[in-house]
Amino acid sequence: QKEVEQDPGPLSVPEGAIVSLNCTYSNSAFQYFMWYRQYSRKGPELLMYTYSSGNKEDGRFTAQVDKSSKYISLFIRDSQPSDSATYLCAMSYGNQFYFGTGTSLTVIP
Amino acid sequence: NAGVTQTPKFQVLKTGQSMTLQCAQDMNHNSMYWYRQDPGMGLRLIYYSASEGTTDKGEVPNGYNVSRLNKREFSLRLESAAPSQTSVYFCASSYGGYNEQFFGPGTRLTVL
To answer: b/e per residue, A25-48, with b = 16+ CB within 10 A?
Structure first.
């Protein structure tokens, strides 16, 4: 079983839609949870970072962590064509980082 | 600040050749990491350096060696390249293990 599971998609939505991206994990030792965005042929860039259960909001993005269910989500409100990218969830404890395989998102104008 | 830089951007090798991928960061981070990214496999950690002078194996270290040259630089060496090492390689850095990582632009390596 992989440490982190993420639905690869692809996911295609119309502009303005609310997007929900999800990951599950198996290791209860994970303490830090991150979401990265990766445009084609570029390196991942950090979007959100949290270490506690609950919600964290940053503009149109909301990260949600449920440690009891070992489940994290990223919500994108009012999605834009510029949000079209691959979204990677990541989790860590100490220097051990584990990434999901990424969900490919396309926002159609 | 340039952030995390990697050289080269692209490289084609023949089986058995060697090469070194270079990485540097200007954010005064303590920890540095090397990942490979393959379709359907996501990012997998090859080696990391928690601090200057230390290195540790990650999930897929076979066929690779690393050197933490100083606080800024962390290189990845392929001694005898194999087609299975065809991948995109990313370097990342962070203040420490409990902090988010920042990634470089990647090196696309093809081994024929």
So the answer is: beeeebebbbbbbbeeeebbeebb
Give the CA diameter of chain B.
39
Q: Which tens digit of pLDDT belongs to each residue from A28-38?
A: 989 899 999 99
pLDDT tens by residue, B50-92: 999 899 999 899 999 999 989 999 999 999 999 999 999 999 9
Cis bond before residue B105 (omega within 30° of 0):
no
Task: Please judge whether B106 and A96 are an interchain contact, meaning their C-beta atoms are less than 8 angstroms apart.
Answer: no
Residue among A32, A27, A2, A36 at smallest CA distance from A95: A32
- A34 token code pair: 């991150």
Cα distance between residue A93 and residue A90, in whole Å: 11
CB < 8 Å to B3, chain A: none
Q: Does position A43 have pLDDT exceeding 90, yes or no?
A: yes
User: Do A49 and B100 lie within an 8 Å CB cutoff?
Assistant: yes
